[in-house]
Amino acid sequence: MRVYLDNNATTIVDPHVFEEMEPFFVQKYGNPNSLHAFAGETHPYIKTAMEKIYAGIQADRKDSVVITSCATESNNWVLKSIYFEYILTGKKNHIIVSEVEHPSIIATAKFIESQGCKVTYLPINSEGLIEAQSVRDAITDKTALVSVMWANNETGAIFPVQEIGEICKEHDVLFHSDAVQAIGKLPVWVQTFNVDYLTFSAHKFHGPKGVGALYIKQGRELIPLLHGGSQMGGLRSGTLNVAGIVGMGKAMEQAVDALDFEMSDIREMRDEFEDALLEIPDTFVVTPRNRRTPNTILISFRGIEGESMLWDLNQAGIGASTGSACASEDLEANSVMEAIGADEDLAHTAIRFSLSRYTTQEELDYTLEVVKKAVNRLREISSSYAYAPEGHESGLTTGH
Predict the structure, then answer these.
(1) Which of 70, 206, 210, 334 could pair with 14 as two cysteines, CB 3.0-4.6 Å apart?
(2) Which of the 8 DSSP states describes residue 115?
(3) Is 326 labeled as catalytic in the residue annotation?
(4) Residues 71-104: pLDDT tens digits?
């Protein structure tokens, strides 16, 4: 059996999404910016797809949604534009991000920090959560931007974006949220949550890879990251990825339609699977279930290196991960586990299982049996498990 449980890294393209995309590769292939009929054939489909994307996040028609290649591009765009507009000109000198943001935020923040910007990296608490008060405490009159993700890619922890948005509005500070892990799992309504900028990628909610978007609230401005064309109102140059836009529109529509299923049926399936995993002795899960996206488990098996567990899972045809797919070649300790204060040995043991609406009970039953066998095998040869300290870490839900 082959089981895919790495849906926080990427998702299968929904067959209905692929069906809508297919004509734009070999039939309706005109460049939308050309003036002939081949180009005009694509315009109605782009318009319809954009309407679905606006509706999916409840954006106002006066807001802007700019198509990008991915959320990494969108995240870079927001932070670098803020640097050029506010930091480089001396208007402001400070931004705030959480210490567990996606690498595309952390690496960009460190880059602009090297150029003279002051950056505050907000800590997470023992449950893997950001506390809104920490944002309030960190804001100064020189703060240009707060960037805090909607939900964490590794733990699934849902951050208090509504409170953070209100705090930023109160202090006249721009607020950006990376919502890559939230679309299709949680209601992401930009008007309700008072965000100025929001990023997402289609491949995280059963759309195609290579296409994402940046929401820009009406009245907010950004300096283009890419120059050289008039596409997207001059905000993002480059020939439009028509098939990708059409696919993202359809995927967004279906993600919103399936939201109740995700938050009920998938959550229930996740919880039962997690309960069964926690029956294994010396297992630990980060972040309370009611504060996590409904599909995600980050679990540690004491005495077992995460990469060793992945090897056994992969040999059995199961796809999981040790954290962010964008850092999969980095075998250092899991950054979230370190941030919550887990001991060094435990910080190397985290495995992430992330479900989707295509996950079946049969697949989870099979995975559970494979995990149990792997735990027994790997602990038998572990040089550290016999000497593991007793007790458990603060903030971690433990097995028996």
Answers:
(1) 206
(2) T
(3) yes
(4) 999 999 999 999 999 999 999 999 999 999 999 9
| Average pLDDT score over residue span 339-355 | 76
Tens digit of pLDDT for each residue in 299-324?
A: 999 999 899 999 999 999 999 998 54
Q: How high is the pLDDT of residue 347?
A: 65
d(CA 10, CA 135) in angstroms, rounded, equals: 30
Residues 6+ apart with CB under 8 A from 268: none
How far is C-alpha 385 from the geometric centre of its chain's CA atoms?
32
* Type and span of the H or E element at 3: strand 3-4
Positive or negative torsion for Cα 253, 258, 262, 266: negative
Residue 47: strand, helix, or coil: helix
pLDDT of the residue at 325? 46
pLDDT of residue 346: 63
Share of the chain above pLDDT 90, in %: 76
CA atoms within 13 A on the CB side of 217: 17
Bridge-partner residues for 186, per DSSP?
183
Q: Where are the domains of the chain?
A: 3-9+260-383, 15-257
Q: How far apart are the first and last CA of the chain?
A: 29
Residues 6+ apart with CB under 8 A from 14: 206, 207, 250, 251, 254
Torsion angle defined by CA atoms of residues 294, 300, 305 and 309, in that order, rounded to the nearest 10 degrees = -50
**391 has a pLDDT exceeding 90:** no
Q: CATH topology for 3-9+260-383?
A: Aspartate Aminotransferase, domain 1 (3.90.1150)
Supply the pLDDT for residue 323: 55
Nearest to 81 by CA among 176, 202, 190: 176
Q: Which residues contact 366 (CB under 8 A, 6 or more apart)?
A: 1, 3, 318
Class of residue 115 by CB neighbours under 10 A (exposed 0-12, middle 13-18, buried 19+):
exposed
Catalytic residue among 70, 117, 168, 326: 326
One of 3.30.70.1350, 3.40.50.1820, 3.40.30.120, 3.40.640.10 is the CATH number of 15-257, namely: 3.40.640.10
Radius of gyration of the chain (CA): 22
The DSSP element (H or E) to which 122 belongs, if any, is: strand 118-122
**Dihedral pair phi/psi, residue 121, rounded to 5°:** -105, 105
pTM above 0.85, yes or no: yes
251-280 average pLDDT score? 97
